[in-house]
Every structure is written in C-alpha cells, then in structure tokens.
Amino acid sequence: MCGIFAYLNYNVGRERRYILEVLLNGLRRLEYRGYDSSGIAIDSDTSSVTQSKSKPYDTAQPVVFRQEGKIESLVSSVYTEVDQLNLDLEKPFLVHAGIAHTRWATHGVPAPRNSHPQSSGEFDEFLVVHNGIITNYEVLKQTLVRHGFTFESDTDTEVIPKLAKFVFDKARDGEGGVTFSQVVMEVMRQLEGAYALIFKSPHYPNELIACKRGSTLLLGVNELGGETSRHLFHDVKALTANDKPKELFFSSDLCAIVEHTKNYAVIEDDEIVHIKDGSVSILKFNYEKEKPASVQRALSVLEMEVEQIKKGDFDHFMKKEIHEQPDSLTTSMRGRLKDGVVGLGGLKDHMRTIRRSRRIIFIGCGTSYHAALAARPIMEELTDIPVTMEIASDMLDRKALIFKEDTAVFVSQSGETADTLLALEYALQHGALCVGVTNTVGSTLARKTHCGVHINAGCEIGVASTKAYTCQIVVMVMMALAIGSDKMSTLAQREAIIAGLIKLPEKVHDVLKLDGEMKALAQSLIDEQSLLMFGRGNNYATALEGALKVKEVALMHSEGMLAGEMKHGPLALVDEYLPIIVIATRDDSFSKQQSVIQQLHARKGRLIVMCSEGDASLVCPDGRSRVIEVPQVVDCLQPIINIIPMQLLAYHLTVLRGYNVDQPRNLAKSVTTQ
C-alpha cells in the first residue's frame, strides 16, 4: 500500500539539489499509493553531521528526513532541515544513492518516527524503505531486543534494518568480511510476509540493494550519452566493465520512472538486485541453498508517455481520467476487433479448456468486483456456462469450493491486490484454470495466472478508479464474445454487440456532455448525509459502483441496492428528504424499474431517475422527479454509459464539499495488504 523509490547516479555529476528533486518527484508520482507520511535518505557531507562519538564507518553519514502528512509537507521540512544542517545543495556527486518512501499506515499511526526510511539505530548503518507487511515481525523484534536492540517506532519495518545490522555485526566479528548482498540474503531468510525492500548503507557507499516477495518492484535504467543497450544483465563482473554514465532507479510503479527512462525490468519474487559500481547483478534467492543463482534479464521498453502522468488542462486526475474514457476504451479494443471477430491473443491457447469449464468464477474486490458483476449476465448468455461471483476476501474466509474443471477469472486494476492474489494462490492449489484481467503489465497477477487479458486503460493515478472500471467491463464483454464465438445461435446478438463496441467511444463522448448537469445535481445534494441508488439486471453493478464512488471521494454515506429487494426492507427508509437515484435505462428490466419508480413516488420519495434519451415522459409522467437522460446502447454495454454520470456526480460532490478528490481519506490506490 506504500510507494518506494530510489535513485542512483553513476559517472555523471548531479548536484544535491537535483538528487533531492528526483527523489521528491518520484514520491509525488507514487503519492496515490499512500499519503499519510513520507521520507527520504541522502548522503551528508562528511563533516556536516557531528556525533559525540566516532562513527563505525569512514564514509559520509546518511541524512534522513521524515515527515507526517503529504509529500509537500516533507518538501518543506527537507529544505528547512537542509539549512539547519548547513548542507550544500550545489555540491556535485559523481556517484550517489538515495532512497524514498510514501506511506499508507498499517503498523503505527502516521508520525515521523513511524515513517520510512526506518533505521538500524545510531549512525543509520542500515536504512530500509518497505512496501508490504512482515507477518513475523513480533518474533523477530523480541529476538533483537534480547540482543540489545531498542526500537523507536511501532512499525513492522524497523525489524528489517536492525536485523541487517545484527547480521552484519555477527559476520564482521567472525573471519573475513561480508558483502551487501550476503547481508540482505540472510535478512530475507528470516522474513515472512509480503514485501518489496530497498536497502542503503554507509558500510557499502554508493550501492543499493532491492529485493521483493509479493509486492511490485521495478528497475529503471537510463544510460546517458547514447541508447541504452538491451543486452542481458549478467553477473557483476561482466557488468562492471561498463563505465558509461547512467542513472538507475527502483520504483513501485512505472509512472515514477517514465519521465527519466523507458527502459525497465520487472523484479521477480525472491530476486535480489544489487547496484554497485554502475553495474546491476540479479540473484535468485533460494531458502534451501546457501549460494544464490545469477539471473539474466533483458530490459523491456515502456509504452507510456510522460503526458499520461500529468493533469494537463484538468484540475484533478479523477476528472482527467473520466474524460479520457473515449480514448481509453478505444485503446482497450484496438487490435482486438477485426472483421466482426474478437481476437484475444492472451486466451487463445486456453480457449478450449475455458469452453469446457463446469463454471466460470469471477473473483475481485471493490470496483473490480463490480466490473465483473456487470459482465456476468452477458458471459452466461453467450457461453451457456454458469458464472458465479466471489469477493476475494470472503472466498478465502469461507474456503470456497473450487474444482479443477472451473475457470477462475481474477480481476484487479493493479494486479497487486493482496486478497485477490491470495485467492489466486488458493485457486491454483485446487487446480483451476486461472485467468487474469489487469491494467498492469508485469504485475504479480499477470505473471502468476495461466493466461489473461490486459485492459490497456493507461496510467490511472486518481485513487477512485474510473477509466479502468469501464475498460474492465469492455474486456470482459470481449471475453464473453470470444468464448461464445463457436455458437451459431447467438451470432446475431454477437454482431450487435460488436457493432455497439465500435460505436461505444462516440457514445461515451456524448454522455460526458452531462458534466455541467451533474455539477448542478451535486450542488443540490451538497448538504445531504445519505444517498441511495437502485439498479437491477445489467445495472445492479452500476448502482453498487456509483454508490462506492460517492463513498470513496465525497465521504458521503451512499448505498447501492438491488431494486428487486426494495420491498424487503429498504422501502422503510423512503421519505420526501432522502435522495434516491433509480437507474431505469431501456433493457429487459425497464418495466420493472417503472414499477419501482411508481412505488417510490407513492411514498413521496425524492427521486433522481436515469433513463434512456427520450424516455423522460415514460419514467416520470408527472415531471416531479429530476431526470438524467443518457444515450442508449446494447444492453450489456449500458453499464459503461450509465456509470459515467455517477462518476461525474461523485467528482463534483467532492470538490464542492472541499475534499481532496485524488487522495480520499484513509484510502490508497493499490491495496497490497489484507
């Protein structure tokens, strides 16, 4: 749930001011992952930091800056402390290694002492930034306390640098020295849980080590003065010969490195990446072997532009991403619709197995679960395969039955959602075919599933998912078309859906014209405490997702309900004050929704009705209700059109109520903890 970042320049002079700005900008790009506290560590001047007793090393002591609050709070405090420490911001470094962290609190309240980098103690002999959770930290902490270590924070992370110091001291007391990678390997041997770690130590100046298990971590490489060679990374000796000036990065997300380089490598689980003397060595850690194996890795080229991580002419990322949906949907479908046929290369080799499944299980959390719920009706209709829905955490709690004849479809925008990944491991253990639907190339979900489809929605920075949701629905509709393409009985229906997909970006562009109308609606709801949304059929998911958006960013209680359940309790809430949104666009459930509207009117309900263009007089013949008219499309694509006014409503409610729309309270984009 946190963001970690590191920057190492080699054989190229960089002033301390430049290094600070690279680290702070990296955190700004990762702030969507957590924003309750942050910190960085850089090198001091040898004489600038004084101690009452001599340091246990001869190199410059690290300077650690940590601050509660958002990144800009850290920025202000960094430059204040730099002045107090009399650090020369113009001093150039031919080689320098810095690390940075932005936090979403799991262990310990937001406070400087709980912020990262966490330290081994006096003199900061080992510093660590961490994304994830160490599940056995209490046992490790007790052991370290018995060996004389004192702890200053409430975090699980603090055991890691202290354990590194313990390993280092123990090895140094024996015969011979110990390498940085050997220290980290021994630390990894003791850790349990999910983590991505970056280590910095003055005992190993100008070196960085990163390792991971379960949490995303990437390496970026920018060779200066020419094209970055895409040869394989071999062992340290082979790479040390390359003295070209270069910049090297570690990051939790590609969006933090795209402005520096497009050349990157995904770090795999149990790999240790060691940067030393401008070279990169990748080692594969194995619990059963003392010596790790060397790994060869080619660089990939990032297909992302810097403009994607900037707001452009918009005030907030959420609004930008809402308005990007015509383009993101076009990109998601590009190359996959040809001559009336859907082609999904990621599923091709497993299509026969999917078609012979006894059932399809959609598994996800939050918005991704809602996207799968929206796609369920058409998946069942076109494939004749039963489709069940599972919230990942509940599936694990129940130890739900999964069989090897099942196809389990895992939906996650980030591909790193902890509950979804644990559910994936569970399904793999039970022999099911596992399919991934994600927006993140190289994510854990993409790597661990048997096959899958990338939604290609582009970089989404706003914490509340918008364009990824609509692209997820489109991709799962295309999956239904591909799986059911062997059935002649549904040919006409499939052709109509494909024609609808081709026209969909244009229809989304039309519905975005409701922006001003939704702002006016938000103005009328600004002082309300609660909001209900009723949907059914294809649009039950729309009601759930619309309510979730209002909860997430506007901090207003809102609840999405199945309209068919209205009479079984929720009707008691209806009065002339509580605003209720009823989704009543044209589909098989239209007449039933008309009945719901009549019943709500009979109880003096305060209604806002979403209907298809031209249907206002049918849903509200007396004109007493507020009406939102949207373009009509084929039934299975209507949830994509209908959610956009709800996204706009949530956005405007948030702005009008004075809340941070891109960084809602207590939330973060990628949920990498249980």
UniProtKB/TrEMBL annotation:
<keyword id="KW-0677">Repeat</keyword>
<comment type="pathway">
    <text>Nucleotide-sugar biosynthesis; UDP-N-acetyl-alpha-D-glucosamine biosynthesis; alpha-D-glucosamine 6-phosphate from D-fructose 6-phosphate: step 1/1.</text>
</comment>
<feature type="domain" description="Glutamine amidotransferase type-2">
    <location>
        <begin position="2"/>
        <end position="278"/>
    </location>
</feature>
<dbReference type="InterPro" id="IPR005855">
    <property type="entry name" value="GFAT"/>
</dbReference>
<dbReference type="GO" id="GO:0006002">
    <property type="term" value="P:fructose 6-phosphate metabolic process"/>
</dbReference>
<dbReference type="GO" id="GO:0006047">
    <property type="term" value="P:UDP-N-acetylglucosamine metabolic process"/>
</dbReference>
<keyword id="KW-0808">Transferase</keyword>
<feature type="domain" description="SIS">
    <location>
        <begin position="350"/>
        <end position="490"/>
    </location>
</feature>
<dbReference type="GO" id="GO:0006487">
    <property type="term" value="P:protein N-linked glycosylation"/>
</dbReference>
<dbReference type="GO" id="GO:0004360">
    <property type="term" value="F:glutamine-fructose-6-phosphate transaminase (isomerizing) activity"/>
</dbReference>
<dbReference type="Pfam" id="PF13522">
    <property type="entry name" value="GATase_6"/>
</dbReference>
<dbReference type="InterPro" id="IPR035490">
    <property type="entry name" value="GlmS/FrlB_SIS"/>
</dbReference>
<keyword id="KW-0315">Glutamine amidotransferase</keyword>
<dbReference type="InterPro" id="IPR047084">
    <property type="entry name" value="GFAT_N"/>
</dbReference>
<dbReference type="InterPro" id="IPR017932">
    <property type="entry name" value="GATase_2_dom"/>
</dbReference>
<dbReference type="InterPro" id="IPR046348">
    <property type="entry name" value="SIS_dom_sf"/>
</dbReference>
<dbReference type="Pfam" id="PF01380">
    <property type="entry name" value="SIS"/>
</dbReference>
<keyword id="KW-0032">Aminotransferase</keyword>
<dbReference type="InterPro" id="IPR029055">
    <property type="entry name" value="Ntn_hydrolases_N"/>
</dbReference>
<feature type="domain" description="SIS">
    <location>
        <begin position="521"/>
        <end position="664"/>
    </location>
</feature>
<protein>
    <recommendedName>
        <fullName>glutamine--fructose-6-phosphate transaminase (isomerizing)</fullName>
        <ecNumber>2.6.1.16</ecNumber>
    </recommendedName>
</protein>
<dbReference type="InterPro" id="IPR035466">
    <property type="entry name" value="GlmS/AgaS_SIS"/>
</dbReference>
<dbReference type="InterPro" id="IPR001347">
    <property type="entry name" value="SIS_dom"/>
</dbReference>
<dbReference type="GO" id="GO:0097367">
    <property type="term" value="F:carbohydrate derivative binding"/>
</dbReference>
